[in-house]
Backbone:
């Protein structure tokens, strides 16, 4: 990369948009974040207001320019990263008919179950690489067709949040191939919207955005935005890719044996590959990245959100009041690996990978009178790790190294636990700006300043952890028990969920 060139990566996330300016070595010059609410209720709704997100994007970009001390001409390109699986229905005038329905919205569950009875949906997974799950736009459109046909009748386009932002700024409905490939509607091998998925959802290609490459660039925002967005007239705006894929790129986890493990509110395991590959048991996804790369892996619902729940249930008064996760996790120091035979199934929020079902719940298994608070805390952390390891085993290779990002990377005990459970070297990368830096690297490619994903001067990692051989042996035994228990309890979970719906109306007080 050319150190004299500055670029901006804009990451449109589920809870906030982050704008970061980088120099040619990938070093942060300035960063700014703007949040927005996630609208939820007991029905499973998880929406956001599109205008609030658009305002956050523009505000974050303007403020980070002010903080950087750079003049507008210095930032040559802006590239976007965005969360996957969002859906907005808009009318012929571009006015939203729905809010932005996020990946976390599960109201399409029943509509998807009906499609499973009527169609062999594994074919859709095989053609698109997107698991059959309520998170996908494929499922969301089926739900809108069933429950809101009046909205569908008025819909001119079904788009994602990045397409909404780009249309506002440039007047075109476009989507990068990476995000399209995560919709459940796109065949990335054939490079076209998948006819089978369109037939099942009842929509046409005319209602979807034009698919473009991840380095497709625009210049000159619409006149109505020229005074609102404080960028130079010759700045190029690069469409970019998805947040998960770009996180791998940004932290340098791009080699054949580089695996990224992210644990924030949710979690994910991802590996870049040159081959499109789907799993016979539909445990993993396979989406596009850019430059002919794919990202294979799985996302989980139950990451940091479960740790936060554990803090509220088992944390001390001080830990709860101060949201002191470090002290809470440090309770593991007082217990041995395996939590004295206590196992925790972390499925408090249903689950995506590896089961892709909301018909699953959490459980403590093996409780005895001798188990104490610290055992429950350890079991919670180990349960999350066991589930992530179950996802990883589908894409694993003995030569892999694990790059950890998100909140997990800030806690040495967490990192060592992952090294022991995964049986792999664990690396904490030098940067926390994975998705934004990944977008910035695409911006440099669009400027012809870089030809590969790898930064020319890759900085050394912050920390490296090696697996403890004794713990590895114990965890191998416990992982097998954990997996067996999960599979054996599936039918019992379904019966219990039916009871909850019947007697509690889906609410647990």
Residues:
């Amino acid at each position: 990369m050319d150190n004299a060139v500055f670029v901006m990566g804009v990451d449109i996330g589920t809870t906030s948009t982050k704008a970061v300016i980088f120099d040619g070595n990938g070093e942060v010059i300035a960063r700014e974040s703007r949040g927005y609410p996630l609208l939820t209720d007991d029905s499973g709704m998880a929406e956001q207001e599109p205008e609030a997100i658009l305002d956050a994007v523009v505000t974050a970009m303007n403020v980070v320019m002010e903080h950087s001390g750079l003049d507008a001409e210095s930032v040559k390109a802006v590239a976007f990263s965005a969360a996957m699986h969002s859906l907005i229905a808009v009318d012929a005038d571009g006015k939203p008919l729905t809010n932005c329905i996020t990946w976390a919205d599960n109201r399409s569950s029943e509509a998807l179950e009906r499609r499973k009875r009527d169609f062999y949906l594994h074919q859709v997974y095989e053609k698109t690489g997107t698991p059959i799950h309520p998170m996908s736009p494929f499922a969301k459109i089926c739900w809108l067709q069933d429950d809101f046909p009046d909205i569908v009748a008025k819909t001119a386009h079904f788009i994602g949040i990045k397409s909404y932002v780009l249309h506002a700024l440039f007047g075109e409905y476009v989507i990068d191939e990476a995000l399209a490939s995560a919709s459940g509607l796109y065949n990335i091998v054939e490079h076209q919207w998948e006819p089978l998925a369109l037939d099942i959802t009842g929509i046409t290609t005319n209602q979807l955005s034009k698919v473009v490459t991840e380095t497709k660039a625009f210049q000159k925002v619409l006149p109505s935005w020229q005074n609102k967005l404080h960028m130079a007239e010759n700045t190029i705006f690069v469409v970019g890719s998805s947040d998960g894929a770009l996180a791998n790129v940004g932290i340098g986890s791009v080699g054949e044996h580089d695996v990224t493990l992210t644990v924030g509110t949710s979690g994910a395991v991802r590996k870049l590959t040159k081959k499109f590959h789907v799993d016979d048991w539909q445990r993993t996804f396979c989406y596009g990245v850019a430059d002919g790369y794919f990202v294979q892996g799985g996302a989980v619902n139950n990451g940091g959100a479960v740790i936060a729940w554990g803090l509220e249930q088992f944390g001390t008064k001080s830990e709860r009041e101060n949201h002191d996760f470090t002290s809470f996790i440090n309770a593991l120091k007082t217990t041995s690996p395996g939590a004295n035979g206590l196992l925790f199934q972390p499925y408090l929020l249903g689950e995506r990978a590896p089961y892709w079902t909301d018909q699953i719940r959490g459980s403590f298994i093996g409780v005895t009178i001798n188990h104490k608070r610290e055992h429950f805390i350890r079991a919670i952390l180990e349960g999350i790790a066991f589930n992530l390891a179950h996802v990883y085993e589908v894409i694993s290779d003995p030569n892999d190294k694990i790059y950890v990002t998100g909140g997990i990377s800030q806690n040495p005990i967490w990192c060592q636990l992952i090294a022991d459970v995964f049986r792999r070297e664990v690396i904490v990368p030098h940067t926390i700006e994975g998705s934004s830096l990944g977008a910035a690297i695409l911006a440099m490619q669009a400027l012809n300043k870089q030809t590969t994903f790898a930064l020319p001067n890759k900085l050394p990692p912050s920390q490296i952890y090696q697996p403890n051989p004794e713990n590895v042996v114990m965890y191998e035994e416990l992982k097998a028990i954990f997996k067996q228990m999960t599979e054996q309890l599936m039918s019992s979970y379904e019966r219990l969920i039916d009871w909850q719906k019947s007697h509690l109306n889906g609410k647990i007080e």
